[in-house]
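Internal tracking record. Fields below are filled automatically when a chain is submitted to the structure queue. Please do not edit lines marked as system-generated. If the sequence contains nonstandard residues, flag them in the REMARKS field before resubmitting.
Queue: standard
Priority: normal
Entity type: single polypeptide chain
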Amino acid sequence: MHHIRLYFPPILLFVMRLKSFISPINSLFNPLSLLVTSTLLTTGLSFSTAIFHPCGSAVQAARTFGTDGADGSQGSAGDDGRAGRDSTINATGMPINVNLEGGDGGNGQRGDDAYRPRCGNQPNQPSHDLEAADGGDGGDGGDGGDGGDGGNITVYYQDRSALRAVYVNAAGGRGGMGGQGGRGTDGCDCDEDDWTVTTCSDGNCDTEGYDCKDGDRGSHGRRGDRGKEGEVGRARLIQHHESLGESLGESSGELLAGDNTHEEIVIAAVDASPVQLSRNLWETRTGAKSLFAIGSTISDEYDEYVGRVEKQFQLVWDAQRPQSEASGSLDVALNEQGELQVTSPEELWIDGELSSTEALTTYRVNGAVLQSEAVQLTLGRNSGRGDDFVVNVIDTANTSDLVDTRFHLRYYTDEGDRRSRFISRYDAAIPDDLVTQDYNRFSVALGKLPISARYLQTGVPVRVELTVMRSYAGNSAEQVLSWNGQL
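SYSTEM-GENERATED OUTPUT FOLLOWS
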């Protein structure tokens, strides 16, 4: 409980002390004291508000005694539930009960309670406010574990009505409950709520009031989150004939051949022998809940087997570059629609084409350039001034017979003042008719661009940034060539 007390601000005490020192004009201070007191009361300024002493020092903040309570530890999270098993069965019309339920997640553990503070003894009437130690916060409860996903079922059947005899429980497990939060502890209490301290100097005394605030109670920990529910399992249906094999009953056997949907082929090492890829094709449908026995728990979306595709892939190298010097690997994949897809490595730019027959898909490589070679350009000598100013660019990797080349210029000149500011005079693509190619040498007629002749004269400080854009067979890269100097 807080006690109401009167606290005389230092400014009022200062006025009262002045009155005792200046007795000849004592009568002047009585109305002044009343005026200051009246002003403080009418303006609503609390007597416990911290203000400044006449000497300019602020009233000291409250000091804490004792040791705050330690917080409790968070509770451990619950374990995730196990996933339900997968199963493959043959539906013959005889009743079959298949349990593929996922396991429940474990409950989170309760957070630990906080530790009580060590209160100690309250200091005896110090010349400052006090605040007792706070209680500790309780630990948060651990989150519940996620429920395990229900297992998937693969069902072979001849007569679709036989599925009505199959009861499936592929429910996901329940999420675990979150653990309860730990309890916070009480803060320490003050033994003495308020007091006054009188100090005297040179026969003048000053009395100030101070108080003690009880420590705050620690908060309770948060309850842990509940774990997620496991996903319900899904069905795959395969209509088969006796030629596929004997009855499976309820087993984990497989009648369909496995998939080989992806091959990574090292280009430099591959020979002309075809690579075999295969995939079972599926069509996603809805309505599984109406196909199985009443009360079954299964995803309503299921996959129906619609056939199998097998394809051979062959690489034919017709590029001028030797195949042994090619880098990287081709990624060959058979997608869900049964189509072959070929992805080239980033470091090798390939000009290739796919062609297919009933039995074989061929990828013919007509040209190839290493990406690193496409950006091996350097500035050659520039020549001429004014309208005849030409910059030369050299392709040191000798790939310009295959690679397309475009230029973009940023041209700056120095203003000539003390700040050495460069001002842009041109920032745009260079028209193709101003670029002359002689095998691996490009001559760029910068003097023919719409740049004022005064910025193309001998002795002008310039900065040239020539961006070269190189592209081949749908691939591209850029290289910036820079030059600073005087024309």
